[in-house]
Design goal:
The protein is of the alpha/beta class. It has helices spanning 4-23, 29-32, 35-64, 105-116, 142-149, 164-169, 171-180, 215-219; strands at residues 70-78, 88-93, 122-125, 158-160, 189-195, 198-204, 228-231, 247-250, 279-283, 286-290, 308-316. It has two domains: 4-64; 69-316, Metallo-dependent phosphatases (Purple Acid Phosphatase, chain A, domain 2).
Length: 321
Amino acid sequence: MISRFFVIAVALFGGLLLFLAYLLRPLPVGEARDSRVRWRRIFRVAIVILLISIVASGIWAYFIEPNRLIVRYETIAIDAWPRELSGIRIAVIADIHTDTRFINEAKLQQIVDLTNAQHPDLIVLLGDYNTGGLNNPYHVEPEITAGYLKNLKAPLGVVGILGNHDWWYNGEKVRHAFENAGIPILEDDVKKLSWRGKSFWLAGLADLWTRPQHVAQTIAKTPTGATVIALTHNPDIFPALPGSVPLLLAAHTHGGQVNIPLLGTPVVPSRFGSKYTAGHIFENNHHMFVTTGIGTSIMRVRFRVPPEIVILTITSTAAAP
């Protein structure tokens, strides 16, 4: 169903275009020779073009971009990554924020279909499957979300962690819903996987905002010298990551949701500002990749930060023997 706000916005946009066309009509010969008339016309045209740009950006940010879903392909080359694991492809999905209005069941099915079409080796879910807490009138029970995501397919399976919105609702209920659907949730826990005869470990870290932190203790559950990929909802734990972990996968920021040309991302939910907003970050000999996620929170807007499923290829820079 088309929103009345969308109709109003489009009508306003159309009206401004018509007014611009009116302003750009040829002037009578007498007025065309009057410099004051010409400058008044230039000023009015500039104001109308500015208003058209603002309305068009608003339509895009509220009605169009949040409804998009792109596949983003990224490659990270890591010095400490084993050659045997070079080329592994991981689908990263995060911040779905299911509700009855925007990220509904049809969207969940689209997420599943589009991810499966990429044929990743492993799929990781980085939390925030819900929107808000118990008082959200558009809440969708986690059993419904898990019921769709259980159809994600990858040779190494699907592994998840929880985010702050999951705990603001009911973290244990979310966890049970996903585990009952066959998707393990790593809450300060680790899981061993093997790809092409070489083993590596996933370490799922508890949410920074809502849970006690045991980063070093969780990583210590993996064998000494093991290859570890850490999973976190919140990228702000990056500075606390032990030196033995070459790669951290994170979410939470939504990429700031709004990226204004020349100004960047005005609002990022991180104590480090825009430092960990999105993408690949290399710091203190660690790699981190932050996905911009799929859903929205606080305000349903996205501008130049489209919802994404990331297909991350990890390669090794180690020389062949």
